[in-house]
């Protein structure tokens, strides 16, 4: 054993509770083993329930998991000082209830933070249920972090690093971030809390199998490259997934997602080649998907269920996106506690509100069912697809089932060169421009 | 350390084998550690190979993993008595062969039962192979539970709880449920065994990366909300996935699935907003997907391969579903041992047999290749899509390749207002009703 | 305890470092426990950092993880001699840097090799970045295996077994295979290295959440049945996924994939019922998807971004495949270091180059943006879909946005019976045959 290895082994011995640390794969070295463990290297698997804080042992995962994880990250950086070998580590969070008082700052690549349970349960149903004293349980669970910052920050987790290269391959896997409550009331979706904010450019990140609940903003990622947001359960958050700044070659796939009426289920800004596919996106969401200056991206094979106009919304100039094979179900809010709220848009806004050029909208089915009395403006014939601006958009082979006469396609007066093919009967089509091509659905 | 924590630590010490329990992440506390482990909480990670049954140590995972898991669940409930903190637990099943004699009853939320290997192997091939004495192995493997109930129950796992709230976030992950054999013969798909039955309303469940083999019914889930069935291998079962009762906002995605001729690969009853996407569904299956009174759901981007008519079947009234981008391959049974069997339907039944209103069938490719001698009734011109009942269905842009002249679309006399657009040439279209719209594929 | 169990327990005691082996779930038995551990069975969870090589303790995961894993596999085979119970095992690779000098040979079913981090980082960016002395880190990470064979073999992992049955349910999960460098220069994509080669028929394999980087060939699988390649990050490899020989009922879904200009991002040979869906396939790739004699397969809902013609390529005779709902973005190489390279094809070759019969190409969006000066042959009107051979292909409802006049569809003189429906305007269509059907996009 080299002196260096030996030193590390001793240091770990002092700082890690020996038996408990073995839980979940932490390779703890004991004195008598060190002699024979020629291969010994610093451990890379950490368990929050057994890690002893380096300077203040009173800090545990049960008093402040945020401060504790920051201490673990400091240890990782200390043990991996060499530019040429920084494999990262895993921080394991067994099922349990953990308060987070201090924001975690992740500034190392190849860090996986992994739990053993996304733990989603509906807090919305519970808060609106009245007397729950006889309930089996009242909170979300699994590997559950209660986001209760007392440090003046809004985020549970901040991922950020300056310098080169950008952070790579940080993974959040299979735990629960719970914002606990909203203010001023439990149906406001507001509490200023952010589950995870990635604030600097990043590559090959994965957000997988997580649960997010009762956060004003669940997941906010700036400048993503080759991001994967897959298999998560993100619901009852003001906004769920916000891809801000810019981004490319990313995907948001196979998630359960449903935001509050104040925010976005999925928002994408200045992305290229984003793939939003196979998600089950349920109410509510000010919009379910919102594109801003996002180009050459795909919204494919999703199921969308919304209670307001603008289910798929956009602003700015969005170019050459493919919106295909999605199911759009629009009906009014059925649940009493949420009926006071909406997104302020009327039924002329479009179930799809499209701004941009060269987009293709094809093979989608719209199932619209809003009682006439709930359609706004009163007496309006609702719009399904509104091409609100832009040129050379291509709408083809879309289907509509509606309980009322509706305009399947409406073209704004500013639009140019839209092709509308087999997407509206003659009586379902309105153009405020003369620059378009129309072939009516027979 | 509080007295309460101390008490728990001591109790665990007595009941959990100390070293072995550390396997797979069980945070075991030993006496000398307890004093310094101020953060100590009851463990939430259980390993079936090291857990000692609380009342009868003769019961182990190698004698009856079902009784053992029930004992673990009882321990979870005992250690988490407080309504306000029930994070649940993980029960880990390392690779191994485990007999299940007693049905497991899961009645806690946030429980993950996790193995390390779906372990599928074809028992059908093996049973029909003749002499296998020289084979390397003959059974499925991985974290394999042999469903061998001697308790009078049919299920390996029953998930059920009365009272409020419904169970949330129970996860079955990455192990194998093997029903071992069928009776009266190995090609009957019958043995009365059910892998997992969820029998009460549930939210945010996940069934992931599992293997199911040789069960009469693999997975049966009643009243699912926001269920995810993802990444599983469910084959050589009578029926594979049955979503019964009712359900909403669920998804069955990215699975390998293939039932026997007696049952369903995927069955959905009274679901809303179900997303069946990206599955590779192979033979056989009485039907590959069967919808009953299921509405506003999507069947998108699947590959389906079947040996009988009615690959996508339906009964009742199914409304406003989107069936798009699927590949349907229909050929006759090629394998000798299974050639005696079929689902009793003839080729006029339709590769798709559609009952309901406002459904959209679009962008699918049908590759039909059945020798004339095997088409029934003899001499019939086979039907690809049969609209058997309902109004306002929309068939557009479907493709057909067939070895024989076939009717791409047939409309039953009871149907009203079907649109058939670019889905059949004139010679491939038959309507027994006069109430329809037809634009022939050029 | 039976004598046999006791013997096994003792043997393990001698060979496995006691405490460290408990890491990551290795069920180690100690002498004093054995008496009470009536359930004791050979362990099935191995940790590469604690395993002691059976004959040469100098071999560790830090000297040659390949030789070490081979020793573990030998142990699995020794401990599971019985044909009727071979559940397999898990080999766990914690985050770390591990050299592989000796090829691993996997010849047991139900083996999972699992890490804790795919660890992708761009080596291409780093190698072309100039001075990286100030970088935080310079290599990929996670559970990273450096493929550095000194044994004369080209593969990091070879999966191969003769006899019956074929191997089942081998799983590679969540680690990184890094080929380190290319020769003669870092932009050649050549080093002769293969990450994983499966060389004999196989069933129900899974390749999941892996990272592959800087290998000439990442993943090569022969004769796959019901394979799943899901959620991987496979980039900066000469070729990424090659499914060779033959195969059926497999899927390549939800991956990030991007090959070098010398190879394929996804290649499939003689497959039936392959589902390539929901992938984000980025540059470069001689082709992004290449089919050879592959039938009744689906390419659905992918995002493809390429820098050369032939993004979706084919040779041989490919029959009855469905190519739908994909987004094809074609632009010229924007990055200086790679601008010297291309795949040698010109813009008349087609973004899609299709050879075969009865294929359906529908609902795709092509976004073509190549400055005229970079189009070859000089002055050519580029081709988007070239039907290069075959009969009865069906192109419908495809959209095109292009910066230059382009031929959306070109039919070779050898083709017969192609239907071109709503996929090209009259000025975007060229047929060198008279045997076709054309309905112009209005």
Oligomer state equals homotrimer
Tell me the number of helical segments of chain A per DSSP (H or I, 4 or more residues long): 5
Q: Classify the helix fraction of chain A into a percent range.
A: 10-25%
Structural class of chain A: mainly beta
Amount of beta strand of chain A: 35-45%
Rg estimate of chain A, integer Å: 25 Å
- Give the chain pair forming the largest contact, with residue counts: A-B, 73 and 79 residues
Q: What characteristic shape of chain A results from the CA principal axes?
A: globular
Low-pLDDT parts of chain A are: 1-39
Mean of residue pLDDT values of chain A:
92
DSSP strand tally of chain A: 41
Q: Largest beta sheet of chain A, briefly?
A: 14 strands, parallel
**Beginning-to-end CA distance, first to last residue of chain A:** 81 Å
Order of strands across the biggest sheet of chain A? 1-2-5-9-13-16-19-23-26-30-33-36-39-41
Would you give an account of this structure?
3 copies of one chain form a homotrimer. Chain A is mostly beta strands and 442 residues long. Chain A contains 5 helices and 41 strands. Mean pLDDT of chain A is 92; it is low at 1-39. At the A-B interface, helix 2 and helix 4 of A face strand 41 of B.
Which labels suit this protein?
homotrimer; 442 residues; mainly beta; 14-stranded parallel sheet; eleven-stranded parallel sheet; disordered N terminus
